[in-house]
Specification:
By secondary structure, this protein is an alpha+beta fold. It has helices at about 125, 200-215, 270-275, 275-305, 310-330, 335-350, 355-365, 375-390, 400-420, 430-455, 460-465, 470-475, and strands spanning about 5-15, 15-25, 35, 60-65, 70-85, 90-100, 110-120, 130-135, 145-150, 155, 160-175, 180-200, 225-230, 235, 240, 245-250.
């Protein structure tokens, strides 16, 4: 995924294998997968047709690499271009959602895998292993030895799949070189299903694991290499042989460059959670079942920090409201009772002389009057944090005055950036640092809630949260 591809080969549709055309498959990390062919799948050379037909969206395109003979399958393809040259040769362009390099699949439902292995950016740093031992002969400093001991895998199970952290090494580079040699290892996440999963389900699992790691690192991480093992074997010289299948697909908010993070500055690395890793993983999956909209909104802000402050603020406020609603509820009165008993009385009290569109506007707002206000939701989340983390100190919530001011700032800013009411202009943060501070404080509140929900002890949370990216942003601003 981190490395692009540029594969020359021959391509066809599964049900029209006789229409085989040369072309090139390209993928630049973060972009769509593109296939350019010298031909048109809808026009047979035998027919002599010269007019390109309507654009098509084949579920699968099959092919093989000219140089190696590797089989390739492209999934969820859409034609994006077509041209006809004076020479009489057609060309067609397709955008594809996923590329499987090393595997041939005949139907979309055949895209099943037993295991998927993923390398994430900064996963080595998060795992924080020290597999190398450097020894120096004290009698002869020119005599040095480096020993590699492969770390033990971390095994865990969930209801539907096993997730293992495995360490692959040693990888020796420069062997035989007279003056230079390096030894390295790689950390992988291996997802093994109880029964074969379709690739789309694996992609959902990968995203959930990616977000768990991002929470632990305190910064975005990305899948940089993926391969799968399938019962669907490749045919080589008449034999069915099982090979790893390299998998490529676009990832949202792909960075221009990868920053390197280090374990001492992460909210929690693997050593912090290793003894209860399976428990944390299972709780994270249950959190996704309950508060997926919250997590999607929260991580959208993390992965896209360059977005406008207004959009980032409104997104994190919506995330916080959704979290409170999903976890704590938050109704002054049950909705069914409210709509049956109170709401009709409110509607009846609307003055009859008002214009119809004004009446409809009031009715629309009254539908949700049974729900807690944003002010109350924030206050309850702060209390939830204080009840679970006795003694935790943040200057914006630890006194009645600062807490009330913080909550008012959030509510007024939400109202202003939603409606742009002039009377609230002076009540909203004006400078970039003030806006960033308000956004970061809300993100920090959610991080604390997530760590409480995962089951971290108060002592661990108090220690680890001060390593988080958001905590250090606040410290630098102040």
């Amino acid at each position: 995924m981190k490395d692009g591809i540029n594969i020359k080969g021959f391509w066809w549709l599964p049900d029209k294998a006789e229409n085989e055309f040369p072309g090139t498959l390209t993928y630049l990390p973060g972009n769509h997968i593109s296939l350019n062919i010298d031909g048109d799948f809808n026009i047979s050379e035998k027919s002599g047709g010269i007019n390109p037909q309507e654009f098509i969206s084949p579920s699968l395109i099959q092919g093989f690499e000219s140089e190696t003979g590797r089989q390739i399958t492209l999934y969820d393809c859409h034609q994006t271009g077509s041209s006809f040259r004076i020479s009489g040769i057609h060309s067609s362009k397709f955008s594809c959602l996923t590329a499987f390099v090393g595997g041939k699949f005949d139907k979309p439902e055949d895209l099943l895998f037993r295991t998927i292995s993923v390398r994430f950016s900064n996963l080595d740093q998060w795992a924080n292993r020290r597999p190398f031992d450097h020894q120096i002969d004290k009698q002869n400093f020119n005599n040095q030895k480096i020993q590699y001991t492969n770390p033990e895998s971390i095994l865990s199970s969930t209801e539907n799949f096993d997730l293992n952290i495995i360490f692959g090494g040693p990888q020796v580079n420069g062997f035989g070189n007279s003056n230079k040699m390096s030894i390295s290892y790689e950390t992988w996440i291996e997802i093994e299903s109880k029964e074969e999963f379709h690739i789309t389900k694996y992609q959902s699992i990968i995203r959930v694991i990616q977000n768990f790691l991002s929470l632990g690192m305190g910064n975005p991480t990305y899948p940089i290499k993926i391969y799968g093992m399938s019962d669907h074997k490749s045919e080589i010289d008449g034999e069915d042989i099982e090979f790893p299948i390299d998998i490529y697909y676009p990832v949202a908010w792909w960075p221009d460059k990868f920053e390197e993070y280090h374990a001492p500055f992460m909210p929690f690395s693997l050593p912090v959670i290793e003894d209860k890793f399976e428990m944390y993983l299972q709780k994270w999956l249950k959190m996704y079942d309950l508060i997926e909209p919250t997590l999607n909104l929260y991580f959208a802000g993390m992965y896209n920090p360059e977005n406008y402050y207004e959009m980032r603020f409104l997104s994190i406020v919506q995330s916080l409201e959704t979290y409170h609603r999903r976890v704590f509820g938050g109704n002054y009165q049950e909705r069914d009772d409210y709509l049956k008993s109170i709401y009709p009385a409110f509607v009846e009290a609307i003055p009859s002389e008002l214009k119809s569109d004004f009446k409809d506007s009031i009715k629309g707002r009254m539908v949700y009057l049974n729900e807690y206000s944003l002010r109350r939701r924030i206050r309850e989340l702060i209390k939830h944090i204080e009840d679970n983390l006795d003694g935790i100190y943040f200057d914006f919530i630890n006194s009645n005055q600062t807490r009330d001011q913080f909550i008012s700032d959030v509510v007024d800013t939400r109202n202003y950036w939603t409606h742009y009411s002039e009377n609230l202009t002076d009540s909203t943060p004006q400078s970039g640092d003030e806006r960033l501070s308000l956004i970061t404080k809300l993100q920090l509140l959610l991080e604390l809630c997530f760590m409480i929900d995962l089951g971290f002890t108060p002592e661990v949370i108090k220690t680890q949260i001060r390593r988080s990216h958001n905590f250090n942003i606040l410290r630098n601003i102040s």
